[in-house]
Amino acid sequence: MKEILILSSFVLLNFISYSQKEEKPEGQLHGNFQILSQQYSEDSLIGATVPPAETAINAFGSLNYKYGNFTAGLRFESYNNAIQGFSAQNRYKGTGIGNRYIQYQDTLLDITIGNFYDQFGNGLVLRTYWEPNLGIDNAFDGVRVIFTPKQGITLKTIYGKQRLDFDNRIINADGIIRGADLDLNLNNFISKWSEKETQITLGGSFVSRYQAGGNLFADTLIFTLPENVAMAAGRIELNTTLFRNSSKPGSLQVNAEYASKINDPSADNGFIYRKGTGIYINSSYSSKGFGINLATKFIDNMSFRADRNLKLFDVPTNYLPAITKQHTYNLAATLYPYATPLTGEVSIMGEIFYTIPKGSALGGKYGTQLSLNMAAANGLDTTQFTGINALTEGYNLNGIGFGPSKYVRDVNFEIRKKLSKELSFAFTYYYMEFNTLVTPVTNDFKGIVYADIEVLEINYKFAPKHNLKIEVQALQTKQDKGDWATAVIEYSKSPHWSIGIIDQYNYGNPNEEKQLHYLFGTVSYIEGSHRISLGYGKRRQGVFCIGGVCRAVPATNGFELTITSSF
């Protein structure tokens, strides 16, 4: 209620001020709404259960008011009850204010009080964000100050707690997070470099957590838990043009970051006192019709949370991005999606894009787009300690190369071709080796799954504003639940209507009783920034991922209603 009164007073005072001046108001009010409601039906074949209330709803509504250099905002949230699988820890209950802030911003200072989201560098030491479809909200609740004394220099400081739970109000974790980040563009900072085409930016970050300490008991030994734990990182980003005097100049980008963490005994690492290390390097080159991207990552004991005692999705302070490509097709994206293990990994990725020119034998009238992506990740090369060292350090790192444990292999090739103004297609092939012991996406198999996936997508625009999309997907594997097939048909009439049907068929399941169809249909209507979608059918138990962050979802059968709107 206090937050509502503050925002209402802020808006009212500005309205009165404008009224007294008899000028046209310059204040701007923006907002958005999202409602997801589900009705559940029991289905013993797929394992779908019905909660006591039989229905559930997640609803969000944000209001942001801007006047001059000031901005204030609120987000209302309602979970009555929360959608099944939205939070494994049942972190969302009731109705109330889940986010509120006031911000002042000019050319020198940017000050935020209340809730805010931020990221330092690539996120190795700090990243907070809101992803309502995954049930993740680790927003800061405190103060952030961004200082920009001159162009090219940005100093950012934060101080506060992180959101852990919501029960008719925000509930924060115990730990207090303090951080600072410096971004320095050398071209703006050094006058002699101001006209150079090569841009170089340096950055540095420092983040620490304070949490009341205590004692850790192990056998007959007593260890003291540190109250202050810190992380630091340094990074460099380079942007330049290669072959600038040729007919096909290309853009080169290199982004590298190194992070280190002091001893942080936590539930994630078994409460050992080992230090953490993170290295992330990403480079890309692109010119007309050609592009290449190379990346590598080394992560050792880099989990960092606002509460050392929590696990899974609760209050992560930093972010460990997955090196694999974020797939969009159903079978590749939902059956075996990879996420970076918190224990650590060594990974590499390479990707090549090439467009066969228009007018050539293979390019045809519109050209042909090709892409090849390869990613691999293994566990660390370590030797387990024994005795007291096992309790303090856990293991010895033998080197930064690939360890013996395979985590994932992901190779995919795609060809996209426009045959005419009305007809186009895309074909994608995937080869995967996926360790389900590292990323537990299934309860039916423990080990490495070897899978081949083929996807054919056809788009046919048979009349103005009328488009038909057809997807045919197949997955073959001798492990886990066996072979799958997926068919997707979607008809859209621009700009308002869309009708779609998806059928997932587990025809190769070793258990014949589970060779089931998961059929789901949707009807959507769009009007400007408003969208209403009604769906009905079965959804299988599995994993839902966005940006390399995943959550487990239960099997469901019933209706789904989604409404989104913004103004």
How many discrete domains? 2
Overall pLDDT level: 91
Report the structural category.
mainly beta
Give the class-level CATH name of the largest domain: Mainly Beta
What features would you describe in this structure?
- The chain is mainly beta and 567 residues long.
- It has two domains: 117-321, no CATH class; 333-378 and 405-567, Porin (Beta Barrel), CATH 2.40.160.
- 6% of the residues lie in helices and 58% in strands.
- It has four helices and 31 strands.
- The protein has helices at 2-21, 186-189, 330-334, 388-392; strands at residues 28-40, 55-67, 70-79, 92-105, 109-116, 130-131, 136-137, 140-150, 153-167, 170-172, 176-185, 199-210, 214-218, 221-225, 228-242, 250-261, 276-287, 290-300, 344-356, 368-384, 395-418, 423-435, 448-463, 466-476, 484-493, 497-505, 517-527, 530-539, 542-546, 549-553, 556-566.
- It has a 25-stranded mixed beta sheet that branches. It has a two-stranded antiparallel ribbon with strand order 6-7. Strands 13-14 form a two-stranded antiparallel ribbon.
- It is globular and about 65 Å long.
- The model is unreliable at 4-13 and 15-22 (pLDDT under 50).
